[in-house]
Amino acid sequence: MATAPRPRTSTRDPEELARRLTAWLAARLPGAKATGVRVPESNGMSSETLLFDIEHPQPPLQACALRVAADPSAYTIFPVYDLPRQHRTMRLVAEHTDLPVPRVLWLEEDPVPLGAPFFVMERVEGRVPPDVMPYTYEGNWLHAASDAERAHLEEASIRLIAHLHDQVPVTEAEFLALPGEGSPLRRHVDAQRAYYHWVVDGLPRSPLIESAFDRLEEWWPGDEGETVLNWGDARIGNVIYDGFDPAAVLDWEMAALAPREVDLGWMIYLHRFFQDLTVSFGQEGLPGFLRRDRIEERYAQLTGHTPRSMDFHTLYAALRHAIVMLRVAYRQVHFGEAAVPEDPDMLILHHASLAAMVQDSYW
């Protein structure tokens, strides 16, 4: 992690994208042109982002961000990229909550202009806790912050999830119900199992991931809890902060109807993933930040709902992340950046912590 290059994320040509974006924009705003088109260094490995400015005869200059579905030739992380669904989710959250969701300007469902559907939203300035190198490593703004500043950011971030779960009427979010039979939690887990089978189709399977699915069945909650709109990728790396306050909540592609604890488990474990990785490379990390007990306690205070079955839900988060990591690793194999080891579980960066969770020895 400390020395490996960032995995290849796209086969698209940024200059060609800029030319096509300018042509598309001119048809919607006569006299306007896209300038300063660029791909951010932190561009994700699923949907891709372009940053640009709109120059128009009538000022002011407008700063925008564009989200485009993943390039199919880039060995995509997910099998389906539903940009209209993301667009609708962002508008729903903006309408019903006080979460700072960027204002969406246009949705383009025709794949012809850029080669895939996309939407354009207002660009929000600020700073994001980095993934590479992780914010738990020394040398970034969040690690350098004071304990009080990190506590402020933690509190504000937990509040985002609490308000999302409490403020969006589930009846307005039925389009995010996952297909299948059974409860929302059962459908959610079944969707992840189908995703895993897609990832390993024609490739070595992961005994560890399969044992984690088995453990989930053994630990299945007797009371699954209330169904709410889940952000899906609930973590601080998907928030733009103004100082230590949230200024924009991003990345809604994994949104779904599920119990509250699905989001909470993801927030807890995704931080632990970075913290464990940092410790394994000899740094202290941020052991007092985003602790499981504090997240659960503060969420209960904000919502009146005490999180339940959290061993199940943190295991589920680690399992979901393992499937994504396995797909990322197989993408690296596809592009000649890595080779498949004798034990495919070694492709999962957090295989040790996932194994400990399966054995009920992690927490």
Description of the structure:
The protein has 363 residues and is α+β, with helices and mostly antiparallel strands. Helix content is 41%, strand content 13%. The protein has helices at residues 14-28, 83-96, 141-144, 147-167, 184-199, 207-218, 260-280, 292-303, 310-334, 351-358, and strands spanning 33-38, 48-55, 62-68, 104-108, 118-122, 227-230, 239-242, 245-249, 256-259. Helix 5 packs parallel to helix 9 (310-334), helix 6 (207-218) runs antiparallel to helix 9 (310-334) and helix 6 (207-218) runs parallel beside helix 10. The longest helix is centred in the C-terminal third of the chain and has 25 residues, at 310-334. Residues 1-8 have low confidence and may be disordered.
Please bin the fraction of helical residues.
40-55%
Radius of gyration: 20 Å
Strand content: 5-15%
- Largest beta sheet: what is the strand line-up? 1-2-3-5-4
Rounded mean pLDDT is 92
Protein name: Phosphotransferase family protein
Domain Aminoglycoside phosphotransferase: 82-282
InterPro entries: ACAD10_11_N, AGP_Transferase, Aminoglycoside_PTrfase, Kinase-like_dom_sf
Write the layout of secondary structure elements.
Layout: H1 14-28, E1 33-38, E2 48-55, E3 62-68, H2 83-96, E4 104-108, E5 118-122, H3 141-144, H4 147-167, H5 184-199, H6 207-218, E6 227-230, E7 239-242, E8 245-249, E9 256-259, H7 260-280, H8 292-303, H9 310-334, H10 351-358
Antiparallel strand pairs: 1-2, 2-3, 3-5, 4-5, 6-9, 7-8
Helix pairs in contact: 4-8, 5-9, 6-9, 6-10, 7-9, 9-10
